[in-house]
């Protein structure tokens, strides 16, 4: 396959297919995770997850994430 004739999206799709075929889904995900540095302060955010949030807090966070996701897809 001649990648120089492919779009970035096609290259990404092809790359994921090759990685998945050769490493399996779990292996592909572990490989990709090596290149994601993440963001934020994991230690501070971790305490939010472990401090037994209320149902209302969880619901509010889900609503915020949903609203953020909806806004990013409307552009």
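^ structure tokens above, recovered residues below v
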């Amino acid at each position: 396959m001649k990648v120089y004739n492919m779009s970035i999206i096609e290259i990404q799709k092809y790359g994921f297919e090759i990685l998945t075929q050769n490493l399996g889904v779990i292996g592909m995900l572990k490989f990709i995770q090596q290149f994601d540095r993440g963001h934020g302060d994991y230690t501070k955010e971790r305490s939010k997850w472990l401090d037994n949030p209320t149902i209302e807090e969880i619901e509010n966070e889900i609503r915020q994430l949903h609203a953020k996701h909806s806004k990013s897809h409307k552009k």
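The chain is about 75% helix and 0% strand.
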